Amino acid sequence: MTQQYRTMRLLINCNKSDLKRLQMCNKESAMIWNKCIEANNKLYEENKKLHNRNSFFTLVKDIETEVICSNNKQTVAKRVIDAYKAISKARKAGRVDEKYPYKIKKYFPTEWDYNYLFCDYNKNEISLTVSRFTDANGVARNGKQIRLKFKTSIPQNIKTLKLIYEGERYYACISYLTDVEEKQPSFSNVAAIDLGEIHAITSVSDQQDQLIITGRKIRSIKQFRNKKQAELRSKMDKCTKYSRQWHKYNRAWQYIKSKTRRQLDYHIHKLTRMYTDWAKEKGISLVYCGDVTGIDVGSNKGTNVNQKLSQWEYGLIMELLDYKLRLEGIRFIKVNESYSSQICPSCGFKNKPTNRNYCCSNCEEEYHRDIVGAWNILNMNHKLDFVPSRNTKYLRIS
């Protein structure tokens, strides 16, 4: 047995008083974020340095708040540090267009760790710690806890709780540890994955099994979202900002955003589950995945293609594949995929395809373009003695 982190999102039910305090939590967290960014910018202008973890904790300790406690403040400071580290890493990798945090936030998700929340499993409730206050006699006292009620059973061994607002409702994202049985694959076959924006997952195994899972459903949801949000944004631009009509369009814009986000999460989950089931069926023990990180950096392929590349959620797909395959005892390794779709499997000639089919100008062999990419990724990491066939299993998300 091994322990794995899992997350579930539950709709929050609470009284009006606690609901107002939940809103104040995210407002005060945003205030902490803004002050951390402001202090970092000021220090950099003066000394060309940035605050470290301890100096941030000292800074946020002196900021007065009505609802959130010291742990919430420190968590926001950690998120600021993580944001700077992520941007710094991306810039070192060549993404010089990435900017350090600079926008002023109105709301920011508040987090509590397990030491600052108390669960009542019989009543299905969680109580959240808030800031202390000084009474009329000058005595410091603990504030009244925020009580959250849930219709769904709350999990055991909770580690963190994050408060998020979506679709005019508050949700609790609960991370918890659970025991998972370690599984061992029954065979030792190897496969490779070529990720794509049209065909989301294309895979070839060393037993000549070929699979294509189309991502056209995901693509159509994004196209619908982009079209509707553009229409609403155009209407909002013609209204007086923050007027009644502007708020009406803004609520519709947020509704489209949250609805399509749920649809995308569902279909990406289904997509990765389909591949995991196929890998189990074929006895796969090791999967090589072509890492396409940074594919949209430093290139201008036109407005439409740039938008599709920027909205392509390959990072989420790789993360879910790694997580789900690991639960089945299958190793997942990210490898370099440069020029994998351009090398002919038959003669090794380099030829850039112009459509969905790969036609070699040297030996005149013809293959599916994405199958060629997956085959080359597998061949570069696990030498093969066969070429791609025309027998491919084709799956689609419905």
Automatic annotation (TrEMBL):
Pfam families: Cas12f1-like_TNB, OrfB_IS605
Residue ranges of domain Probable transposase IS891/IS1136/IS1341 in the record: 175-294
Keyword hit for DNA-binding: yes
Keyword annotations of the record: DNA recombination, DNA-binding, Transposition
Domain of life assignment: Bacteria
GO terms under biological process: DNA recombination; transposition
Cas12f1-like TNB domain span: 315-377
Family statement drawn from the similarity comment of this UniProt entry: In the C-terminal section; belongs to the transposase 35 family.
Name the record gives this protein: Transposase
Organism whose genome encodes this protein: Brevibacillus gelatini
